[in-house]
Structures
1.
Amino acid sequence: MNAVSVVFVLTGVLLNAAAQLLLKAGTQAFAGLGLDRGQPLVSAWRIATEPHIFGGLACYVLSVGVWILVLSRVSVSVAYPMLSIGYVVNAIAAWYLFGEALSMQKLLGIGVIIIGVVLVARS
């Protein structure tokens, strides 16, 4: 995999990770949105226009475009496992941003993922 391909892969992974984090932040804002089960269209509109949710969906759209570029340059058997880097990014960011726990088991899993990604990338 050449340097340009690596940049595209990492961009796609980071956009996907950002989408997850923004969606999580958006769900935390739901309490302040005043969702009304009696008016589902109004509630749906509030959710769709919540800035974090909108930003997360925009990141997903961009990540799909970048991923199409990745798949045009890198074999899917190498590219797809690279998406696992997103778990590492999200676990660390969720710990930092949302105070989610990073147990020893999660840290060991992250280590296994990193080793796996390195092995696949070098194949």
Note: Helices lie at 3-33, 40-49, 51-73, 76-82, 85-98, 104-121.
2.
Amino acid sequence: MTELLNIGFGNLVNTDKIAAIVSPDSAPAKRLVQRAKKEERAVDATQGRKTRSIIILERDTIVLSSLGPDTLAGRFHELSGGKEEE
């Protein structure tokens, strides 16, 4: 069953498509965002607020969220019922 992760402001992401959730603070992450925006592969779900997480999806699409990686990881963990992923 497909589960959706709330990434803030009513925006949802399919958990089956998430490859990684990273902080936008490093230089490689900033380059990733710049390149994705240039190639129109970025979805900005921040509603004009500061980007605190980059959600990397399958097929090289990224989603920008104003929620922190720890918050998103906690929500993802809750959706999985607290089970550890293998």
Note: The mean pLDDT is 94.
3.
Amino acid sequence: MPLELPLHTPRLLLRDFVEADWEAVQAYAHLPEVVRYMPWGPNSETDTRDFIGRALAAQAVSPRLNFELALIWRESGQLIGGCGLTVQNTTHRVGEIGYCLHPDFWGRGCAAEAAGALLALGFEELQLHRIQASCDPENAGSRRVLEKIGMQLEGQLRQNLQLRGQWRDSLLWSILEHEWRGSG
């Protein structure tokens, strides 16, 4: 059964990226404050075009295991960020989510709304058992999002990423299917 994309939330549309999205992505992906805790960026135009190319290529893979989706503000049709769900292990049914928004949309609950839609995609459509996410311990906004969508903090990975010449820790979060469904 084909997956039902785009995904709709009260304020957002989550759809596959298209080639023309690169400029809207570049509008936030080049900003140092946006990529402060990300393992990429700040993006050049080439970096962003390459990202869009990888997202388009992933759409054609069957079975599809990588869902990089554009976040569209339904009221205006504006691309305000991106989010993704990657199936990391099909045998154990494990996925990982992530999100990134233009700072004009920070603090409005958009990341939690998008992340909640990704959980539904993972558990309902892809039949995952576990979905995880990670964030920098200093990224208070992302921590709030993960708490809000019901994920539990599992622990801290020490110096697992080298970002811009510095070793950084990551917090590992997860939610299991039965927890998400409320029987947990």
Note: The chain has a mean pLDDT of 96.
4.
Amino acid sequence: MDDYRADHSQGPGTPIDGAAGLSALIDDARARLIRAAQDRNAAMHAPVVVTGDGDARIMVLRAADADFAALRFHTDRRSPKMAVIGADPRLTILAYDPQDRVQLRLTAQAHIEHHGPVADAAWADATPLSRRVYLVTAAPGGPLALPGSALPEDLRHRRPTPAETEAGRSHFSVILARITVIDWLRLGSGGGLRARFVRDHAGNGWQGAWIAP
């Protein structure tokens, strides 16, 4: 029964078959991403994000909406990836749940928000501890004279006050990733199960098809 569920179901007692199965899988992808954004302990909370130059890094998923219109990530606008995304907005996002053995590979187009209501709201919702990383004195990837954090010395071992964090607002940016392709894969001893979904040209619904794992 465990092998059957691993290869042919969304979960216990839920068969995956035909068009109804495709619908169940895209619903599963949606639920996993929404849960990952809301729960720091979720398996897909920190996926791998790959920019158009092939560089990869772990990023925390901050928000996901029900129609895949935007996955939201936060970053330092001084990061080199900002220039890369500005020149080439393509992203690949890889998330994996080792317990369920489900992998999501997402193709997306990125949009950067430095200012405006989206970035302002994201900053307002961030905790002082989350904001602290934007107070670093060197840009991400920049040289340091000594090993360790680039945080100011007096902030390395304490939580800053909300007022102290405001100096980091100018370094804060939001990356919005609009998903265009979803590759859903469940690994299993029976050969696995895989489907691919492509957003239609109107940008609304999804066209799904079964593919070989």
Note: The chain is about 25% helix and 30% strand.
